[in-house]
Amino acid sequence: MQKLLRFAIMILCLLLTFESECQIYNSMKSDTLVLKLDSIESIFLQRNLVLLAQRYNIDAQKALVEQAKLFPNPNLNFGTTLYQTATKQFFPIGKTGEVSAGLSQVILLAGKHNKQVRIATTNATISEYQFYDLLRTLKHTLRTDFFNIHFLLQSANVYDREIAALQQVTDAFALQKGKGYISEKEVIRIKAQLYNLQTEYNDLKLQLDDVQSELRLLMQSHNTVVVPIVDEEAIKALNPEKYPLGVILDSAYNTRPDLKIARLNSDLSSQNYHLQKAMAVPDVSIQLGYDQQGSYINNLTTLGFGIDLPFLNRNQGNIKSAKAMIKLNQATFDATRANVDEQIYSTLKKAIENDKLLKSRDASFEKDFSRLLSEVLKNYEVRNINLLDFLDFYDSYKQNSLQINSIKFNRVSAFEDLNFYTGIEYLKN
Fold this sequence. Notes:
By secondary structure, the chain is of the alpha+beta class. The protein has helices at residues 2-28, 37-47, 49-68, 112-175, 184-219, 232-236, 245-255, 257-279, 316-359, 363-381, 387-422, and strands at 31-36, 75-80, 83-84, 89-90, 99-107, 224-229, 284-291, 300-307. It has two domains: 39-71 and 108-280 and 315-422, Outer membrane efflux proteins (OEP) (Up-down Bundle), CATH 1.20.1600.10; 72-107 and 285-312.
């Protein structure tokens, strides 16, 4: 009886442990989010930590503008006697003591203050455009991943259908094993094709997992799987030649944050050059002093000024460096603009070619192929077609479907590149 009781308790513990593990597994399972592009972008804008960090940088740079507007503090100094030997007193006050004080204020000359404010303001503006450039880059990655996942899932459906069909055939072969209806060579050939498809499918799922991981990181939405809802009609209606080249270039020149940053860096170097020239001019210090009885008369009040003599250091090195930086940043701006032109020409050509390639294919071909897929399986099962024809059709269907999905993704990716490089939304949410 005791052995039976111990056995029952052990079984109960095992069941409780199994239930607990199941709960842990279920808690680790990914949630599936079926989302449109605008919903994903909204989540991205609210949660992305990299964007949040860059926003803090904007606040930091704006605070430096406030700091640059402040003037130097006045300086106050005070002195008194520590010990009076005649009266043997510490810190004597009154007629037997000595007190001196001074007040000084630095006056910035040559417009240094305003020049420093302009530089701080330019840096703050650059930080804002750096935020927009980061936003633009991350958003491009987000949208590209969105469409990539969509077409990878379409390809995964192709593998699902073919693997299910071949699994159906192999199961039927297993029931007929030993009856002599099917040759062993044919069974092995079907299984080899099935295992090959499963291997390819696994590689595709790994690729899909990588893209899903990147999308989750951008959205800061962990433990989720995104299933995109794509407006196929909007994608079909895309036209790479919708806008003239001049309009595209003007849009890029006016909206590209990286181009604006390059222009502002050029302006910044010029502002710094003027500041360094101003730094060669010494500042004046106005001084007000008082001495109780340590001078030639009691209660002496003085007014004076101080200034550095610019004999040894006239800021020559910084001026030369700032002048060289003007040329460097101007060359960088010219290179950035040339790069913008080349990116637009290349991406527009790529979009046109991908658009023509997709539209040159017969639209009904893909539907006919999909319709015949199940018919071919039925005909093979009743032996109306042989093994080679069956496998050849299934392989052709797979290759064609994967190729179509690749062409569609390359086309929509090219339009996303145009969005990225030109600032024009060819494909709106």
